[in-house]
Every structure is written in C-alpha cells, then in structure tokens.
Design brief:
about 80% helix
Length: about 60
C-alpha cells in the first residue's frame, strides 16, 4: 500500500526527468554514475534532481501539522 502511494505521488508531482532518476535510483538500484551514463548527464546533476524530487515527494506524502 505504501509503495502504491509513492508511485501515485511520483506520477502526480514529479516532472519527467525527476521521475526517471527516482525510478532508476530507487526501483532499479543504479548508482548516480550509472544513471548519468544512461541519461547523458553528470552525477552531480543526477544528485540534484534526486534531492529535488525527494523534497517534492516528501511534501506530497507527509501530512502537515
């Protein structure tokens, strides 16, 4: 059930590039360097996209007090 919520949030709040790096990193277990090779980006760009995507997902999934 939790995974389904995360997947739904991914579709709703992430742009295509953020979705791709989250998918590759956390669902396929690829390293930042490998994701960079697959997407033709450097590892620091991938790292920033993942950080930005996690912030968006956290805002969508964590209830506010």
């Amino acid at each position: 059930m939790k995974l389904a919520r995360v997947r739904l949030a991914m579709y709703e709040v992430l742009n295509e590039e953020e979705f791709e790096v989250i998918e590759l990193r956390f669902f396929h277990g690829l390293s930042l360097r490998h994701i960079g090779k697959v997407t033709d980006r450097n590892a620091s760009t991938i790292h920033r996209r993942i950080e930005r995507a996690i912030v968006k997902l956290r805002r969508a999934l964590v209830p506010r007090e």
